[in-house]
Specification:
Layout (H helix, E strand, L loop, with lengths): L5 E7 L2 E8 L1 H22 L8 E7 H8 L9
Antiparallel strand pairs: 1-2, 1-3
Length: about 80
């Protein structure tokens, strides 16, 4: 049985960046840890001013690659 591969994506100000690839179980626990850290930093910085929020989510690797992979150049000469 093949395990499906996912990307953990960070969305910061509308810019998406894959952080790492792995199984859904691995990345779900890492996502929760990052969200907890983000929440703690947000709460600590709330008294100092605005804090930039980052959202995290999982995307199947093949879906991300299909939508975000650059096209390969083709030599038509």
């Amino acid at each position: 049985m093949t395990m499906k591969c996912y990307y953990l994506i960070a969305n910061k100000s509308g810019f998406e960046e894959p952080l790492r690839a792995g199984t859904e179980a691995e990345l779900t626990s890492e996502k929760k840890a990052l969200e907890r850290k983000q929440r703690t930093m947000h709460e600590a910085g709330a008294a100092k001013g605005p804090w930039e929020r980052v959202s995290f989510y999982l995307v199947p690797k093949e879906e991300w690659d299909r939508q975000n992979c650059p096209l390969m150049p083709v030599d038509l000469s």
